[in-house]
Write a structure and sequence with these properties.
By secondary structure, this protein is mainly alpha-helical. Helix content is 70%, strand content 1%. It is built from ten helices and two strands; from the N terminus they run H-H-H-H-H-E-H-H-H-H-E-H. It has helices spanning 4-16, 20-53, 58-67, 69-90, 111-131, 142-169, 177-195, 203-217, 222-238, 261-277; strands at 136-137, 253-254. A two-stranded antiparallel sheet has the order 1-2. The longest helix has 34 residues, at 20-53. The chain starts with a helix and ends with a helix.
Length: 281
C-alpha cells in the first residue's frame, strides 16, 4: 500500500512534471520571439541603410525611425506570427486550419467585460489625476494617434494569438496553463526590452496586459479579449499617455509624475476579480 508520504511525493512530482506539449509551446513561442527580434532589427537596419543612401544625417534618420516605430513593430509582430504558424504547420503530419481553433468561442462581448472596461478607464483617469501631478492636454496629431492605437493593439494581441494557437495545436491541458503563461511572459518581456531598450517604466503595464488577455480568454469569450485590446490597451496608449514607444509625447493627455506600481496592480486586481467572480453574463 502507498502511504500518505508517498502520495504526497507523487503529487509533488506530478506538479513539477513538464509535459512534452508544454515544452513544445515554449520552443515555438521562443522561436516566435527570436523571429520578431530579428525582423525588427533587420527592418531598422534596412530603413537606415536607405536613408544613408539619400545622404540623410543621423538626426533625420533617428526622427524617422522614431515616428515610424509603431509600424516597424507591428510588421515585425505580424510577420513573426505568420512565419511561426507556417513552421508549426510544416512540423505537423496533418493539415492545420487555424481558424478551426476559434470555433465554439463566443463572439459577443459579455456585460461584465463592458463593466470592467468602464471601471478601468474611469478609475485610471482619476488615478493619474491624483498621482500623476495633474493632467494636461497635448496637441492632437491624427496620424500618430492611429499609429499608436493600431500598433499597441497588434503588439499584445499578436502574442496572445500565437500562444493561443500553440495551446490548441498541441492540446495543452488547462492545469498546465500556469506552466505556460509565466515563462512566456518572461520571453515577452525580454523580446520587448530588446526591441524597445527604453522600456523600464512600462514593465508593469506589459505584465498586466499580457496576463489580463489570458485570464479573460479562460472564460472562452473571444470578443472580450479583443474588446479589452481595443478599448483598454489601445486607449491607454493613445489617450492616457502609456505609449511604450513615445511615452506621453503624442498622447491626448499627458502627466508629469510616475505612477505608483502598487496602485496600478490594485486597480487591475479589482477589475479582474470582478470579471472572474461576478455572476453577470
Amino acid at each position: 500500500m502507498v502511504g500518505p508520504k508517498e502520495k504526497s511525493d507523487m503529487k509533488l512530482l506530478k506538479k513539477l512534471h513538464i509535459s512534452i506539449e508544454v515544452k513544445r509551446l515554449w520552443l515555438y513561442y521562443f522561436l516566435y520571439c527570436v523571429i520578431f527580434i530579428f525582423l525588427n532589427l533587420a527592418m531598422v537596419s534596412v530603413f537606415s541603410f536607405f536613408h544613408f543612401l539619400l545622404n540623410h544625417d543621423m538626426n533625420t534618420i533617428e526622427n524617422w525611425l522614431n515616428r515610424n516605430n509603431w509600424e516597424i513593430l507591428s510588421l515585425g509582430k505580424l510577420f513573426s506570427l505568420y512565419f511561426t504558424s507556417r513552421i508549426i504547420k510544416l512540423n505537423q503530419y496533418n493539415e492545420i486550419k487555424f481558424r478551426d481553433f476559434f470555433i465554439g468561442l463566443s463572439y459577443l462581448p459579455s456585460r461584465k467585460m463592458i463593466g470592467m472596461i468602464v471601471f478601468l478607464l474611469t478609475i485610471f483617469y482619476a488615478f493619474i489625476v491624483q498621482f500623476g501631478g495633474g493632467v494636461n492636454q497635448n496637441q492632437f496629431k491624427e496620424e500618430l494617434f492611429y499609429s499608436s492605437f493600431i500598433g499597441s493593439f497588434i503588439f499584445y494581441l499578436a502574442d496572445f494569438v500565437m500562444i493561443y494557437l500553440i495551446l490548441k495545436v498541441f492540446e495543452v491541458k488547462k492545469e498546465d496553463y500556469s506552466k505556460v503563461i509565466y515563462p512566456c511572459l518572461i520571453l515577452f518581456l525580454i523580446a520587448s526590452k530588446i526591441a524597445l531598450p527604453y522600456l523600464n517604466k512600462f514593465y508593469v503595464f506589459l505584465m498586466i496586459h499580457f496576463l489580463s488577455l489570458f485570464v479573460i480568454s479562460f472564460r472562452g469569450k473571444l470578443a472580450d479579449v479583443f474588446l479589452y485590446g481595443l478599448l483598454v490597451i489601445a486607449p491607454l496608449s493613445t489617450i492616457y499617455g502609456l505609449d511604450i514607444v513615445w511615452d506621453n509625447a503624442y498622447s491626448f493627455f499627458s502627466y508629469q509624475k510616475p505612477l505608483p506600481a502598487l496602485g496600478i496592480l490594485g486597480i487591475w486586481g479589482l477589475a479582474l476579480g470582478y470579471y472572474n467572480y461576478s455572476h453577470a453574463d
